[in-house]
From TrEMBL:
Entry-linked InterPro entries: Acyl-CoA_DH_CS, Acyl-CoA_Oxase/DH_mid-dom, Acyl-CoA_Oxase/DH_mid-dom_sf, AcylCo_DH-like_C, AcylCo_DH/oxidase_C, AcylCoA_DH/ox_N, AcylCoA_DH/ox_N_sf, AcylCoA_DH/oxidase_NM_dom_sf
PANTHER family noted in UniProt: ACYL-COA DEHYDROGENASE, ISOVALERYL-COA DEHYDROGENASE, MITOCHONDRIAL-RELATED
Lineage of source species: Bacteria, Bacillati, Actinomycetota, Actinomycetes, Kitasatosporales
Domain Acyl-CoA oxidase/dehydrogenase middle intervals: 122-221
Occurrences of domain Acyl-CoA dehydrogenase/oxidase C-terminal (ranges): 233-381
Protein name (database record): Acyl-CoA dehydrogenase
UniProt cross-references to Pfam families, sorted A to Z: Acyl-CoA_dh_1, Acyl-CoA_dh_M, Acyl-CoA_dh_N
Domain of life: Bacteria
Cofactor(s) this protein requires: FAD
Domain (Acyl-CoA dehydrogenase/oxidase N-terminal): residue spans on this chain: 6-118
Family from the record: Belongs to the acyl-CoA dehydrogenase family.
Keywords, comma-separated and alphabetical: FAD, Flavoprotein, Oxidoreductase
Length: 387
């Protein structure tokens, strides 16, 4: 097994690192305080091809493999998880899903705009009453009209939607049939300026404050039949396939958080003196640093394994759950350990580690909580579903 990066992968990582050090890290604290990253960052991400990674070039994508995608995502996560999340959702959950499930017209309509950053996508699965139990969602799409005027009228609500107030298109999941549970769900691509769709930004989040998280309300939203992504009744499969790859992206972002925690903690431990010596000389501080370092390496290797499986066309969903579970818990641990190294200074936002901990905390919740990842892994081990 060769863990050496190819020339292309190393170049993608270098490009992302330079971009993050120049365009993201210097602004991350201010964006966090302002509860808004600079919207201009989307165009810059698009110009570098970071919003089109793994999407075929014929649709405006920048091609590349999933390891390059993971490397870029890690760097973005190192800089600011609020920015990383924009990419993970608009590219990872929306554009990549259109590339996999869309017909030619849908690909031509949305992919060039999403990969260039001209448009932003959001992913509307969670509802106020259904989070982990997404298969029981209640947003309803009812058939309306006939012939060329045939379409659907959609009513319902979506909760915690990343990019919600910024997005130009929502990949929305709604119940189209009478079948219970996940069998009656279909996926739709809906422009967010469609009449009847309203959005409200959610404020007061613990972390990811620069990111536009929103509630969506749908009242009599009329869409043409051509808005359906994938076959009718297959929406849950569309959602789960998106989330399986999405979990790799979250895991990579978590590696970035843990790496940022390590860099900050090592730097501070070398400068801060107590008891007449840099705190890096004290063995219990070295223990904190080494715990973070092991978490970084283990999370990164689990993430790279998923990327390798995807690129080789092998099954990867269980491994993606393992990577997401471990990396998200590791990011929380790493940021918390880094805060400990900073002592009281870690607790004020003049230093970066408090934000890392706040941003890391949501990673064990979204795209499937840690408990849900364990159920996915348990099902793969036993063949018995706990859902
Ligand atoms: C900042 C943020 C951004 C988000 N972005 C998006 C987005 O872009 N699109 C989107 O669709 N959603 C998004 N979400 C929603 C996210 O995916 C859900 O919050 C998550 O799936 C959990 O759902 P819930 O919050 O309803 O918790 P619940 O499902 O109510 O879970 C509550 C607790 O019960 C546990 N639990 C539930 N069922 C079981 C079980 N069977 N066994 C054991 N434990 C269980 C959970 O692990 C959790 O600890 C986002 C959330 C946040 C906070």
């Amino acid at each position: 097994m060769n863990l050496e990066l190819s020339a292309e992968q190393a170049a993608a990582r270098r490009l992302a690192k330079d971009f993050v050090d120049r365009e993201i890290t210097p602004h991350a604290a201010a964006w966090d305080r302002a509860e808004r990253v600079d919207p201009g960052i989307v165009g810059k991400l698009g110009a570098l091809g970071f919003l089109g990674l793994t999407v075929p070039e014929e649709y405006g994508g920048s091609g590349g493999d999933h390891l390059s995608y993971a490397l870029v995502t890690e760097e973005l996560g190192r800089g600011d998880s609020a920015v990383r999340g924009i990419v993970s959702v608009s590219l990872g959950l929306v554009a990549k899903t259109i590339a996999s499930w869309g017909d030619e017209e849908q690909k031509r309509a949305w992919l060039p705009r999403l990969t260039s950053g001209e448009a932003v996508g959001c992913f509307g699965l969670t509802e106020p009453g259904t989070g982990s139990d997404a298969g029981n969602l209640t947003t309803r799409a009812v058939r309306d009209g006939s012939g060329s005027g045939a379409g659907y009228v959609i009513d319902g609500a979506k909760m915690f939607i990343t990019n919600g107030t910024w997005a130009d298109v929502v990949l929305l999941f709604a119940r189209t049939g009478g079948a219970p549970g996940h069998k009656g769900i279909s996926a739709f691509l809906i422009p967010t300026d469609t009449p009847g769709l309203t959005r409200r930004e959610i404020h007061g989040k613990l972390g990811l404050r620069g990111q536009a998280t929103a509630e969506l309300a749908l009242e009599g939203v009329r869409v043409p039949a051509s808005a359906m992504l994938g076959p009718e009744g297959k929406g849950f499969s569309v959602a789960m396939s998106a989330l399986a790859k999405g979990r790799m992206s979250v895991a990579a972002g978590c590696v970035g958080i843990a790496q940022a925690a390590l860099d900050a903690a090592v730097g501070y431990a070398g400068e801060r003196e107590q008891f007449g010596a840099p705190i890096a000389r004290h063995q219990l501080v070295q223990e904190l640093l080494s715990d973070i370092a092991v978490d970084v390496d283990a999370a990164r290797l689990l993430t790279w394994r998923v990327a390798d499986l995807v690129d080789r066309g092998e099954p990867f969903a269980t491994e993606a759950s393992k990577a997401k579970l471990f990396a998200s818990e590791a990011a929380v641990r790493a940021a918390n350990n880094a805060l400990q190294v900073f002592g009281g200074y870690g607790y004020i936002d003049e230093y970066p580690v408090g934000k890392l901990l706040r941003d890391a905390r949501v990673m064990t919740l979204y795209e499937g909580t840690s408990q849900i990842q364990k159920l996915v892994i348990g099902r793969a081990l036993t063949g018995v579903s706990a859902f």
